[in-house]
Amino acid sequence: MTLIIQAILDGICIGAIYGLGAMGLVVIQKSSGVFNIAQGMFMMFGGFIAANLTLNLGMPMWLGTIVSMGAMAVIGMILNFLIMRPLAGEPPFTQLMATIGMLSIMYGLVMVIWGTDPYIYPSEIIPIADLKFLGLHLSPSYVNGFIIALIACLVLSEYYRRSKEGTAMRATSEDEELAASVGIKVTKVLKLTWSIGAACSTLAGVLFGMLGSVNYMLGEIGLMAIMPVLVFGGLESFLGALLAGFIVGVVNMIVGVYWEGSFPGITAVVPLIIMLLILIVKPYGLFGEERIERI
Amino acid sequence: MLTIQNLEVVYNNVIWVLKGVSMEVPVGGMICLLGSNGAGKSTTLKAISGVLNLQWGAITGGFVEFEGERLNNKSPQDIAQAGIIQCFEGRRLFKHLTTEENLRMGGYLLSSNAAMRSRLDMVYNYFPRLADMTHRISGYLSGGEQQMLVIGRALMAKPKIMLLDEPSLGLAPLMTKSIFTAIQKINKEEKVAFLLVEQNTKAALSITDYGFVMENGRTVMDGPSAKLRDNEDVKEFYLGLSQVGTKKSFKDTKFYKRRKRWLA
Amino acid sequence: MTIDPAGIYRTNYISDVAVVRTKTQWIILIVAVILTALAPFYLPKAIVNVMTLTCCIIIATFGIQILTGYCGQVSIGQAAVFGIGAYTSAILVNDYHVPFFVSVFLSGLSAALVGCIFGIPSLRLRGFYLVMATLAGHMLVIYFVSHVDFTGGQIGHKADYPSIGSFVFNTGDRLFWLNFGFLLLMTWLARNIVRGRWGRAFIAVRDNDLAAEVMGIDVYRTKILAFAVGCFFAGIGGSLAAHYTGMIHPTQFPMMDGFWYLGYIIVGGLGSIAGCYFGAIFFVVIKEVLIRLPVSMEMAKYLLPMTDVAFGAIIILILIFDPKGMYHRWELFKSYYRIWPLAYK
């Protein structure tokens, strides 16, 4: 019994991190309409930058995280300027392929710069002790992940829903030409989007890395973790992404507790199976918006 | 107020669409732009509002001047800020946003919340139907309601001149009439000039003061609307009333025998 | 669409659909085939080996071209079905002693079957949701083959050299001719599928599947067919590759390969079979050149990841500057050559 509750608690914590990672992708999708398949690589790249800063330069964890978020925000803006801007207005498949190109470049760069060794962070962002109560145990990295991811998600979600810039971002994702003619500075919106998206994933990557280590597989693992979250929560909604993150995290943990022993590696796969089943039934995800089509 | 002189527009470096268009829109004027499909009317509007380069087009000659300033190479955002708002062809909206959000996006350039609120009230005044569906997703509105929303959205930005591209496209006659009545009201009360591109020649000539007829990228005729309505050529080419009585037969096709040619 | 020289009219259906139009083109084609077939006699062994593996990759690229280029269903699972073909063939030949040519065909079929399963969500999924579904499918397949005993699990599985009766294809030259022969056969097959009824149905579904449905094309069946055909090609390619390398292992089919196949058809040209040749050969050449660059021992370990960076950069550059791919450039070149010296800018 305690095992299940432990799994649920851990699942909620890790789910918040998944939700944050998915949010990075949702941010970019909401405003530029591009499915950034390289989001997992953003997470990994940011995680590695933070690892470099904290391990090699001795920065405290919170500073290293913020600086790496800033660095990735700049990199996001540069990628937008170099790659996505020349491709503005092209069909979505072309933009998807461009993100695939980015994925490949970042993967290669990670291998070249940092190699295949794992890096372990020196400490957590918010230093707290192990929490032990009622026979349950919450390690500091999990609690860190939960609190920080939750706050980030809520802040981002409110920004998008209420503020004028947030609605402008949604409008730009619909129809860039129309947005331009209404007075929205489309280039500024896109720059902002990519930086927020990249920074978001970086934070998620760092939190993820705190749970274990930062290594070259993180990109793939991150993408595999985010995908079920996106399907459960839809590509259009932030709170959906957060809730979906919780669900996926909990499912992951419970599956891990019961089945990891007998079927090694199944933890990564079960959410994918569930995701496929959901996609068959609800093609736009559980909370996603249906594309409005008139022939 | 708005002057276009000898405008030349080329798409894709290859397709020469406008071959020297000149026209003028005075303050508070109602001007219509007539012509058959492919004459270059939409291109003229796009050249004014600056969205040409988003469609691989460019102004290669002539100029567009608004209140003394040349608009040739300005970005669409700057032109919108100057007070020229275009309503695109085909009821283009932010389909997944609600009606009210669409209107708010129209008022993106407004500086304060109070200004936004007062403009919103004004738009709902002109189009009461929209007030009933503020929170409906705009993609699901009917054609007429969408057209009202498009015009309302343009109105939100305090335009000095509105460029309407085929507002009556695909609308029932009664709906067309109500939209045109609204346009006339807006013109009188808000002192907004209109440049109206229309295929529905009869309706367009009935509410406008002055008209330009375009053919193959040039303006071939212009004049006060009343004179255009009575002009034989306009009647034959656009209003379907031929000189040979009311019944047309192919035997009487005179196009190739007419001495008068608009394409010199 | 080919731009024909002026004065050429297609007067009946057969000449309209013809792949090779004139006698001259036939002669050029045959000469090219013979020259390539004679490659083992004048090219070094290493290059012949690379060409052999490239044949398998090109066959798999036909598959993804039919699926994504002609039918518009973006799929990242091609590497996984390539693996399915490889495993099926290896198991059939080694464990059940099925004759090679039968097992190639059967592995194509088994890959096609798995492809149909990938394709079931395709009816209602668009764009990136389909991408995610195929990516998940890829992961599932790889997980399955890594953890099941009869595929050899983490150890891998052996695959003997192909043989007909007592004649064994066990030298580099023989393997090259076998693979090249299959490549020609598969090219013929792909070209004919694409220019016939199925191909037209695929293109209709790609361009506007609602309109296609209204016109009478059963969109669901067509999409599943596209998946089946696309994965059939991948299965054949996989089986040939397995018997060439001799040993297969789950790590030979990583997720990145699925992305590469899309890259090959983008660079080569979406929607053309000849484009597959361009794309696959281009990337293979880049990779082989890159890993053989004469750099110091210390830098050498960076060369393989740099191929990833190079591939990504090439894909992005092609997308920005020439999204129609190399086949389009080739068409432009041919048109320029035909109307020279009367070029219009």
Tell me what you see in this structure.
The complex is a heterotrimer of chains A (295), B (264) and C (345). Chain A has 295 residues and is an all-alpha fold. Chain A has a single domain (2-281), classed as ABC transporter involved in vitamin B12 uptake, BtuC (Orthogonal Bundle). Chain A has helices at residues 2-32, 39-56, 61-84, 92-114, 140-162, 164-174, 176-182, 186-211, 218-233, 238-259, 266-281; strands at 131-133, 136-138. Chain B has 264 residues and is of the alpha/beta class. Chain B has two domains: 2-83 and 159-257, Rossmann fold (3-Layer(aba) Sandwich), CATH 3.40.50.300; 93-158, no CATH class. In chain B, 36% of the residues lie in helices and 25% in strands. In chain B, the strands form two sheets. A six-stranded mixed β-sheet of chain B has the order 6-7-8-3-9-10, with helices on both faces. A four-stranded antiparallel β-sheet of chain B has the order 2-1-4-5, with helices on one face. In chain B, β7 (161-165), α7 (173-190) and β8 form a beta-alpha-beta unit. In chain B, α4 (113-126) runs antiparallel to α6. Chain B is globular. The two termini of chain B are 30 Å apart. With 345 residues, chain C is mostly helical. Chain C has a domain at 43-255. In chain C, α4 runs antiparallel to α11 (219-245) and α12 crosses α13. Chains A and C meet through α4, α9 and α11 of A and α7, α10, α12 and α15 of C.
